[in-house]
Amino acid sequence: MSGLLAQMTQSSQTRLEQARAREPEKALWARACDMPPAPPLRLSPEGFDVIAECKLHSPSAGDLSANTSDVESRVTEYACGGACAVSVLTEPVRFGGQLEHLTRAAQVLAPHNVPVMRKDFLIDPYQVMEGRAAGAGGVLVIVRMLDKSRITALLDCACMLKMFVLLEAFDAADLEIAREVLALRRSHDEKILVGLNCRDLDKLTVELSRLSELAHSMPQGFAPVAESGVNTLDDVTKIVSLGYRVALIGTTLMKAPQPRELLGKLLSTGRQTAMGMATRRLRIAKGEVS
Ligand SMILES: O=P(O)(O)OC[C@@H](O)[C@@H](O)c1c[nH]c2ccccc12
């Protein structure tokens, strides 16, 4: 495991122990089950969506809070700009997050009918319950950090709480594990997206080429998500052409003084590309072009 993921596993473990000491799992489970349902994750029929991310700090970009006076207004901009979901970092050590940010984001986004996803380095179902109790409708699960039984335990917990999952891979080996885990879940009534994160966790650089190299290895039947380093309209055109259905975008949107406008442009660019591809497929099917 990379240095960053090892450090994040440690931070996650420490927070988990502290939280368990404050509230036993049974009480937390009851609280999570009592929450009103989160808005459902709905992907647009136009073929492209953005999960917009709220992260105040990142190990690669440093401080990202300059244009964000408060979490509520930033995530509201994202919802008004058309994000299908908002990802909220809750990791405090390297990403400037807190569980409280999730609670606040979920409260302001409920009337907009946009779900919030807990973005953290989760290692235990307890933390999925924490997410739901804070109002989240989804969670990130990072394949590289967990063995198969742990991944399954987190997916089972999310499924019981009717939360969607973004299952994140970094490379072909992770995708293979994801495929094996998912193959056993065909009968589950759940919503799972599979993400490919193209950030190199050791160098912290982005390798967009990984998105093209592994585009054909994404498990079938799950919306493929391009994660990290999607910054420009050209990047969006490229990933949609490769078959990605959703982009997870953080840094660029956090740096934007007007995220609503930027999101609108990213979405219309991606949707135009997707529509162009669909039209071409139709013409091929009809035998009009080869
Ligand atoms: O800021 P970017 O390059 O747009 O990337 C967003 C997202 O992919 C990134 O924040 C991320 C993906 N997986 C993670 C896991 C933990 C923390 C952060 C992440």
TrEMBL record:
Lyase in keyword set: yes
SUPFAM superfamilies: Ribulose-phoshate binding barrel (SSF51366)
Enzyme class label: lyase
Involved pathway(s): Amino-acid biosynthesis; L-tryptophan biosynthesis; L-tryptophan from chorismate: step 4/5
CDD domains: IGPS
Span of the signal peptide: none
Gene Ontology process terms (BP): L-tryptophan biosynthetic process
InterPro entries attached to this UniProt entry: Aldolase_TIM, Indole-3-glycerol_P_synth, Indole-3-glycerol_P_synth_dom, RibuloseP-bd_barrel
Gene Ontology MF terms in the entry: indole-3-glycerol-phosphate synthase activity; phosphoribosylanthranilate isomerase activity
EC id: 4.1.1.48
Comp. bias intervals (Polar residues): 7-16
Keyword Amino-acid biosynthesis: yes
Residues covered by region (Disordered): 1-21
UniProt keywords, alphabetically: Amino-acid biosynthesis, Aromatic amino acid biosynthesis, Decarboxylase, Lyase, Tryptophan biosynthesis
Catalytic activity: 1-(2-carboxyphenylamino)-1-deoxy-D-ribulose 5-phosphate + H(+) = (1S,2R)-1-C-(indol-3-yl)glycerol 3-phosphate + CO2 + H2O
Pfam families (alphabetical): IGPS
PANTHER family to which the protein is assigned, alphabetical: INDOLE-3-GLYCEROL-PHOSPHATE SYNTHASE, TRYPTOPHAN BIOSYNTHESIS PROTEIN
Protein name stated in the entry: indole-3-glycerol-phosphate synthase
Species of the source: Steroidobacter agaridevorans
